[in-house]
Amino acid sequence: MINLNMHYSELKDSYLFYNISEKIKAYRQANPDKELYHLGIGDVSLPLCDAVIKALHSAVDDQSRKETFQGYLPECGAPFFRKAISDFYVNKGIDIKPEEVFASSGASNELGDIIDLFDQSSKALIMEPAYPAYIDDSVIAGRKIFHQDTGRDTMFLASPDKSIDADLIYLCSPNNPTGAVYNYEQLKEWVDFANDRGAIILFDAAYEAFIEDDSIPHSIMQIDGAKTCAIEICSLSKTAGFTGTRLGYTIIPSELNRNGMNINSMWVRNRTTKTNGVSYIIQKGGAAVFTDEGQKEIHEILKVYKNNAKVLMKVLDELGIWYCGGKNAPYIWLKCPGNMSGWDFFDYLLNEIQVIGTPGEGFGKCGSGYFRLATFGDSKKTIIAAERIRDLISKKEN
Known about the structure:
Layout (H helix, E strand, L loop, with lengths): L14 H16 L6 E2 L11 H13 L16 H13 L9 E4 L2 H7 L10 E5 L3 H9 L4 E5 L18 E5 L11 H14 L2 E5 L25 E6 L1 H4 L7 E4 L5 E2 L2 E2 H12 L5 H10 L2 H28 L3 E3 L5 E5 L6 H12 L1 E2 L1 E2 L10 E5 L4 H19 L1
Parallel strand pairs: 1-13, 3-4, 3-5, 5-6, 6-7
Antiparallel strand pairs: 2-8, 7-8, 9-10, 11-12, 12-15, 14-15
Helix pairs in contact: 2-9, 3-9, 10-12
């Protein structure tokens, strides 16, 4: 009989979004006339910008002509796409070469694939509350996990704990779900910690485009020493609305070596073995994001989501509810009023005012009693949802 990967049996049930969808389904059936206001799922609501659409159409036309038709592309990414990313970093003062850039079908896929580079004995350090895939990917790989708790007292940011002997360190800034961000000094602590231990940081930078504060780095590669200890995984999903189009990129510095092996070269070997790469059409669209026109247009779109955050934060400030995130991130992480659990608050908002968010318990035990609001929704509906939250909580307190 075949032996299966029994680590799948160690996974906890992915109940969070399933439970949410079931609750919403039941509510819709009981209240078909009610409109729902979605502040839960981290999916964008605005279409791709004009520069990207034009590039996609042009690429489709290319595929209709023999002289411009493209078949298989280099598995690690089309040269034009890798150079576009490299130039983007260089223009920000970060020396990243095209051969250090790898095209991917999105950050979620890449986070699961990248751990192929590391032996099963490598131990992972994950900060709680956590994006669930970090934990599940490590469980499936059969590796030991250290969980480092964070809380309100540290604004849900963790500092290196020298008692934890980890090999892989997951960092996400701006963070999902908390919206917390690391400054230069805080990231430098992690870089020094990783270099001292010979560990590797897996840096999830999917939300870097939302950073407005100059004291917050957009890339871990801005930190001195990062090129010898960090891999950066990025996405165009939230930056440029590619959630349904699927494109991201990974930065693996050529200086990154362990055990006499070069990790950049290992990833080249992995990609050329396990994938045929991302389509020509999608990469042409992605490259357009990094043109002057594309950057101008996507930042106009991001302004809408950032304004949604301001609308929600204003109401929370009026209500005196503690929260973090929002300013430099598309997520707002709030303390549930009245000592409610996240699930109780979810039910309360859904049943009373038809507003949907995400219970913090779904992101681990450190999320108990907290709640995540996403700012990717329709701007008019976000205003209505914010007003409903204000009126409901004010009424409850009075």
